[in-house]
């Protein structure tokens, strides 16, 4: 009888161990599920808060642009000396997140930076197409820019042809022929120009000098960089473009006639069709950092008749292993 009880005790002990192991496994699984749910809710709450704060920052920039149009001394002139052109350096917002406006240990560190950039300080790719055809004037202007940046002109030809096909496809009056059906989509952002034949390397080099806007637009002579001025004003060389930018810092050009006189003989190339001293389209770049998580947003806004509306908005999120540098201003 004694030997018969030992196997029963061993079986009971093994069963008890299995039950304990099963309970521990179920408990750890439940604990992990609960922890995962808490982490998901915390991440979702943080993402929602970040989006709301970023939306508020974008609304603030829209208010700045609106006030500039309504109360500026030169309402029909936009230049780099106006408040909207000043970048916002990385600023700590943690003290504004708690109800008592006091930072407590364990609260996340939140930083915001950003900048408004005149989109019409760059050459608009849409200008390449006029009435469904490639514009010889703009093709020559972009050719000067490609030559200035040492980029292959063959890519410019592919860009112009691809854009012509894409715009024909999106045109409501265009017939759905085989050529238009196979045409690429019309890009809305500079990074999407790879659809039209530009290499990613070329897009990176061109990004500070070109843009994609919904309609054809002139270049703002008060905000354009020297390479853009050199490309957009026939007969203007690199040295003259730099001198003109330096002279412009003393005061903006209030009219195209004033710009013509400042340029001298090269001023004859200024045309109201392709040049202006004011702008309608602006890019707004915002950057928010919470601890090591960084969220960046880029938006395109249009200011017209005292109203500022958002045309598109893109968001990207990343994690920085080290302390981030301040947001670099767009050139």
Offer a quick outline of the entry.
With 331 residues, the chain is of the alpha+beta class. The chain is 42% helix and 18% strand.
Plain-language structure description:
By secondary structure, the chain is α+β, with helices and mostly antiparallel strands. The chain folds into three domains: 49-121 and 280-319, Pantoate--beta-alanine Ligase, Chain: A,domain 2, CATH 3.30.1300.30; 124-207, no CATH class; 218-276, no CATH class. Helix content is 42%, strand content 18%. A five-stranded antiparallel sheet has the order 1-2-9-10-11, with helices on one face. The chain has a two-stranded parallel sheet with strand order 3-6. A hairpin with a 2-residue loop joins strand 4 (129-130) and strand 5. Helix 6 (226-232) crosses helix 7. Mean pLDDT is 83; it is low at 321-331.
Annotation, overall tally of beta strands: 11
Strand line-up across the major sheet: 1-2-9-10-11
Overall body shape: elongated
Kindly provide the radius of gyration, computed on alpha-carbon positions and rounded to a whole number of angstroms.
29 Å
CATH level 4 superfamily of the largest domain: GSPII I/J protein-like
Write down the CATH class of the largest domain.
Alpha Beta
Strand content: 15-25%
| SSE ordering | HEEEEEHHHHEEHHHEEEE
CATH topology heading of the largest domain:
Pantoate--beta-alanine Ligase, Chain: A,domain 2
Q: What is the average per-residue confidence, as pLDDT, rounded to a whole number?
A: 83
Helix content: 40-55%
User: Tally the helices: what do you get?
Assistant: 8
Helix/strand/pairing category: alpha+beta
Largest sheet: 5 strands, antiparallel
Assign the CATH architecture of the largest domain.
2-Layer Sandwich
Unreliable stretches covering 5 or more consecutive residues: 321-331
Cα(first) to Cα(last) distance is 94 Å
Oligomer: single chain
Number of domains: 3
């Amino acid at each position: 009888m004694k030997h018969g009880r030992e196997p029963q005790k061993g079986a009971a002990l093994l069963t008890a161990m299995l039950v304990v192991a099963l309970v521990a496994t179920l408990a750890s699984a439940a604990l992990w599920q609960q922890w995962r749910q808490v982490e998901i809710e915390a991440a979702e709450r943080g993402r929602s808060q970040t989006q709301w704060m970023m939306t508020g920052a974008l609304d603030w920039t829209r208010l700045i642009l609106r006030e500039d149009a309504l109360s500026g001394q030169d309402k029909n002139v936009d230049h780099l000396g106006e408040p909207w052109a000043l970048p916002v350096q990385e600023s700590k917002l943690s003290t504004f997140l708690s109800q008592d406006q006091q930072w407590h240990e364990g609260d996340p560190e939140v930083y915001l930076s950003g900048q408004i950039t005149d989109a019409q300080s760059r050459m608009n790719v849409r200008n390449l197409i006029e009435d469904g055809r490639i514009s010889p004037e703009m093709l020559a202007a972009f050719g000067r820019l490609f030559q200035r940046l040492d980029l292959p002109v063959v890519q410019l030809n592919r860009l112009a042809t691809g854009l012509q096909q894409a715009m024909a496809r999106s045109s409501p009056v265009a017939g759905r022929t085989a050529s238009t059906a196979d045409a690429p989509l019309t890009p809305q952002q500079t990074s999407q120009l790879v659809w039209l034949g530009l290499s990613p390397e070329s897009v990176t080099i061109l990004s500070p000098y070109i843009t994609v806007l919904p309609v054809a637009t002139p270049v703002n002579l008060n905000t354009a960089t020297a390479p853009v001025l050199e490309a957009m004003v026939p007969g203007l060389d690199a040295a003259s473009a730099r001198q003109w930018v330096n002279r412009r810092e003393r005061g903006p050009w209030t009219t195209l006639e004033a710009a013509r006189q400042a340029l001298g003989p090269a001023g004859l190339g200024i045309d109201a069709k392709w040049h202006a001293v004011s702008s309608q389209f602006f890019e707004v770049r915002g950057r928010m950092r919470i601890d090591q998580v960084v969220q960046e947003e880029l938006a395109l806004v249009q200011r017209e008749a005292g109203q500022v509306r958002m045309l598109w908005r893109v968001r990207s999120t990343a994690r920085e292993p080290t302390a981030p540098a301040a947001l670099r201003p767009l050139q």
